[in-house]
């Protein structure tokens, strides 16, 4: 079931289009990654869903109700990239303050605060002021404040930026638990490895439009294809004729910047790699190392958005 639907979302800032017809869905219990280069429209779209930006065109539906952009739905949880905490309050006091803003009080507030502290691993630091916390602890508390009221849909903007691996694992464990309980999560990130490993689907946006969406397998089929990149490090460089002999019938076989390295794109490694190794052997060269890599989300992302820097 789709809990959030964006259809033909459009937004201009002056003469600059930030969103140019973006459309996608978020399903129940899904952890969905929203990826894109700088300036692609990710933050504008998150703000539009949160009710902080009004669209110029298109619509956003939350549980089949159209959001008008005038206010934030109480069924949403929002975790901004910027740390939004009171540094001179304790962790518990921060959660109590945000809980009060969400309308929680009494036993329900106390219960939710205890739940949040336990989930982010800060129960034993609940009485310490946030100013003394590490960056990872602040990031985890920042997320806890956004989900304290137990929303059904959570928007997270770069939730793991600047945190250590242990805090990152704790954050994603918490998000996985939320998804398992039926909460739907939409997150933006520049950590493509995290998105590939942790998210069930990915949406890639560029120039205000969704240019690809699907599971990792679907994105690979739509873009780079199911080849394997094989990198062979030789004991010495091949000359031009030897390279031609090695290439044989293998498409995409060629030299790297390092003349001792040969790279090949193979679809069937088991069938195509042994003949390639044999052709190298007949040139008199030895293979010192072999590296085989499948298509990654990064290769898909670069294929779709290009390599140029975005400011």
Layout: helices, strands, pairs:
Elements (H helix, E strand, L loop, with lengths): L1 E12 L2 E12 L3 E5 L6 H8 L7 E6 L2 E2 L9 E4 L11 H11 L4 H14 L15 H13 L5 E5 L7 H16 L3 E5 L3 H7 L2 E6 L2 E6 L1 H7 L5 E7 L5 H8 L6 E2 L5 E6 L2 H14 L4 E7 L3 H9 L6
Parallel strand pairs: 3-8, 3-9, 6-7, 7-8
Antiparallel strand pairs: 1-2, 1-4, 4-5, 9-10, 11-13, 11-14, 12-13
CATH topology of the domain at 2-75 and 151-222: Rossmann fold
Strand arrangement, major sheet: 6-7-8-3-9-10
Cα separation of the termini: 37 Å
Structural class: alpha/beta
Chain-averaged pLDDT: 89
Can you characterise this structure?
A hairpin with a 2-residue loop joins strand 4 (57-62) and strand 5. Helix 2 runs parallel beside helix 4, helix 4 runs parallel beside helix 5 and helix 8 (240-247) runs antiparallel to helix 9 (269-282). The protein is of the alpha/beta class and 311 residues long. Strands 6-7-8-3-9-10 form a six-stranded mixed sheet, with helices on both faces. Among the domains are: 2-75 and 151-222, Rossmann fold (3-Layer(aba) Sandwich), CATH 3.40.50; 228-294, Alpha-Beta Plaits (2-Layer Sandwich). The radius of gyration is 24 Å and the shape is elongated. It contains ten helices and 14 strands. The protein has helices at 42-49, 91-101, 106-119, 135-147, 165-180, 192-198, 216-222, 240-247, 269-282, 297-305, and strands at 2-13, 16-27, 31-35, 57-62, 65-66, 76-79, 153-157, 184-188, 201-206, 209-214, 228-234, 254-255, 261-266, 287-293.
């Amino acid at each position: 079931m789709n809990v959030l639907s964006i259809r033909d979302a459009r937004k201009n800032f002056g003469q600059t289009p930030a969103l140019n017809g973006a459309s996608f869905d978020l399903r129940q219990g899904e952890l969905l990654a929203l990826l894109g280069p700088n300036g692609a429209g990710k933050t504008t779209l998150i703000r539009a869903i949160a009710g902080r930006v009004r669209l110029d065109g298109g619509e956003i539906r939350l549980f089949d109700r159209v959001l008008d952009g005038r206010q934030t739905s109480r069924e949403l949880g929002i975790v901004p990239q910027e740390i939004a905490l009171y540094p001179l309050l304790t962790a518990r006091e921060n959660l109590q303050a945000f809980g009060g803003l969400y309308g929680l009080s009494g036993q329900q507030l106390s219960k939710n605060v205890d739940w949040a502290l336990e989930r982010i691993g800060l129960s034993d630091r609940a009485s310490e002021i946030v100013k003394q916390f590490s960056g990872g602890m602040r990031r985890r508390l920042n997320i806890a404040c956004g989900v304290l009221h137990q929303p059904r849909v959570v928007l997270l903007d770069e939730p793991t930026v600047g945190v250590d691996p242990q805090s990152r694992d704790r954050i994603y464990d918490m998000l996985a638990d939320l998804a398992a309980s039926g909460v739907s999560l939409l997150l933006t990130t520049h950590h493509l490895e995290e998105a590939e490993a942790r998210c069930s689907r990915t949406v890639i946006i560029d120039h205000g439009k969704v240019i690809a969406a699907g599971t990792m397998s679907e994105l690979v089929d739509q873009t780079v294809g199911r080849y394997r990149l094989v990198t062979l490090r030789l004991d010495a460089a091949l000359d031009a004729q030897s390279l031609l002999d090695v290439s044989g019938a293998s498409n995409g076989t060629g030299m790297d910047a390092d003349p001792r390295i040969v790279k090949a794109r193979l679809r069937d490694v088991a069938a195509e790699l042994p003949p390639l190794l044999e052709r190298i052997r007949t040139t008199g060269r030895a293979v010192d190392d072999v590296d085989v890599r499948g298509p990654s989300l990064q290769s898909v992302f670069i294929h779709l958005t290009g390599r140029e820097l975005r400011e």
